[in-house]
């Protein structure tokens, strides 16, 4: 599938999270850590809370605010329960001042 332009690069500051919607209506959470942008499903695998409401640290760990599950935004893996399933990640590129996500 093609990349979709989902946000402006300038709109996502360091340590921020931004919820965007893909053309297929899926909500994706964009995160910038140490200058790099990552994209994961904006839905906790524990009880579907929006991960974009959480917070991320310099260690790439994003904490879900509802029950405290922690995910690594680089590969979606679970770092701390109660979530057991990884969260889906998406390929990202920065081009022409935009943040692009590859959906499928
Ligand atoms: S919904 Fe995220 S930890 Fe429960």
Under the CATH scheme, which architecture would be assigned?
3-layer Sandwich
Note the overall shape.
globular
Order of helices and strands: EEEEEEEEEEE
* Bound small-molecule species: FE2/S2 (inorganic) cluster
Instruction: Label the structural class.
Output: mainly beta
- The number of helical segments is 0
Average residue pLDDT: 96
- Using the coordinates shown, work out and report the CATH topology: Rieske Iron-sulfur Protein
- The share of residues in helices is under 10%
The N- to C-terminal Cα distance equals 6 Å
| Strand residues, percent | 35-45%
User: Taking strands numbered 1, 2, ... along the chain, how are they ordered across the largest sheet?
Assistant: 2-3-4-9
Give me the count of strands: 11
**CATH class placement:** Mainly Beta
Task: State the major sheet.
Answer: 4 strands, antiparallel
Alpha carbon gyration radius: 13 Å
Let me know the CATH homologous superfamily. Rieske [2Fe-2S] iron-sulphur domain
- Quaternary arrangement of the chains shown? single chain
Ranges where pLDDT stays below 50 over 5 or more residues in a row are none
Task: Characterise this structure.
By secondary structure, the protein is mainly beta. The protein has a single domain (3-102), classed as Rieske [2Fe-2S] iron-sulphur domain (Rieske Iron-sulfur Protein, 3-layer Sandwich), CATH 2.102.10.10. It has strands at residues 3-8, 17-21, 27-33, 36-41, 55-56, 61-63, 70-72, 78-80, 89-90, 92-95, 98-102. The strands form three sheets. The chain has a four-stranded antiparallel sheet, with no helix packed on it. β7 (70-72) and β8 (78-80) form a beta hairpin. The mean pLDDT is 96. The structure holds FE2/S2 (inorganic) cluster (FES). The site of FE2/S2 (inorganic) cluster has 11 residues, from loops.
């Amino acid at each position: 599938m093609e990349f979709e332009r989902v946000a402006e690069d300038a709109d996502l500051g360091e340590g921020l999270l931004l919820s965007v919607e893909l053309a297929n209506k899926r909500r994706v959470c964009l995160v910038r850590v140490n200058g790099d942008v990552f994209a994961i499903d904006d839905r906790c695998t524990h009880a579907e809370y929006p991960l974009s409401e959480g917070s991320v640290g310099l260690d790439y760990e994003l904490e879900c605010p509802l029950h405290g599950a922690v995910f690594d935004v680089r590969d979606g893996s679970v770092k701390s329960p109660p979530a057991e399933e990884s969260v889906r990640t998406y390929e990202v590129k920065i081009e022409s001042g935009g943040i692009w996500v590859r959906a499928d």
